[in-house]
Amino acid sequence: MVDKPVNPPYFDGLFERLAKHDASTVAAFSRHVHWGYWKDPSQATCSPEDYGTAAENLCRVVCDAAPIRDGMRIVDVGCGFGGTLASLNDRYSGLQLVGVNIDPRQLERAAELVRPKHGNSIEFVHADAARIPLPDKCFDVVLAVECVFHFDRPRFFAETERLLDQGGTLTLSDFVPSERSLEYLDKIDLSANEAIRWSYGEIDLSYSISRYQELAKAHGLVLRESIDITENTLPTYEFLYASTADWTDTWHVELFTRATRLLEKGSRNKMIGYEVLRFVCS
């Protein structure tokens, strides 16, 4: 059974612009729909092409933290347009790659864009992150690039424990609140905010490092590494604001800008960090 997708309306507009082959949208979002990473943020131009490169760089930061090697069995949960799998397919050989997503539209686009090479195999699975129809202990790596805040995390971690072979790793990127900001975030429901809901859907940003450690322990995992890359992602905001310049619906521009400013404020005030976390199956 697959739950009904709960994608934010923003995605509808993105699909429409991609279908029209809008040059800026294709340059920025043809493979990835997540934040960008700039090794030197001061050099960011925030053009669509620059953003597309930065999004690929973020994907590589996550995969390199995993780390990935030739011949591995890898499942990318919340695989989007298949950008992470495409990147791995380009860089490694002999991989068994599986992409999981709850939105059939995203899977359809991924299947069209990603074709196996270098002796790799690629499969796409329509499923909820909490109920993945794949065998037990059949993967070396589980990836979740900027999507876990949409999941029921305890159920996702239970699935990860089931899927990973001994010594396997879960590597994800997420917006992680500081311990001092938890009380404030616990009191508010960001998903109840109209702007957030329209732009980013139902999100849960209440998992600090300590809460992730507790969650991991309850599911046979140990947090081995956390990498704070907040500063490297900050140019994302400038690009996202500029990307609405040709939107025709001014109310949608207002909603998206308001929601994105909330995330930017939290990031710049160090209430929320953008982190890459690596867990090991004990």
Automatic annotation (TrEMBL):
Per the UniProt entry, what is one GO biological process? methylation
Q: Which domain of life is it from?
A: Bacteria
Keyword set for this entry?
Methyltransferase, S-adenosyl-L-methionine, Transferase
Give the Polyketide synthase-like methyltransferase domain ranges.
Answer: 58-268
One matching Pfam family, short form?
Methyltransf_11
Which SMART domains does its entry note?
PKS_MT
Supply the Gene3D superfamilies for this chain: Vaccinia Virus protein VP39
Give the matching SUPFAM superfamilies: S-adenosyl-L-methionine-dependent methyltransferases
Q: Which GO terms describe its molecular function?
A: methyltransferase activity
* Record carries keyword S-adenosyl-L-methionine: yes
Q: Please give the name of this protein.
A: Class I SAM-dependent methyltransferase
Species this chain originates from: Aporhodopirellula aestuarii
Q: What does UniProt list as this organism's lineage?
A: Bacteria, Pseudomonadati, Planctomycetota, Planctomycetia, Pirellulales
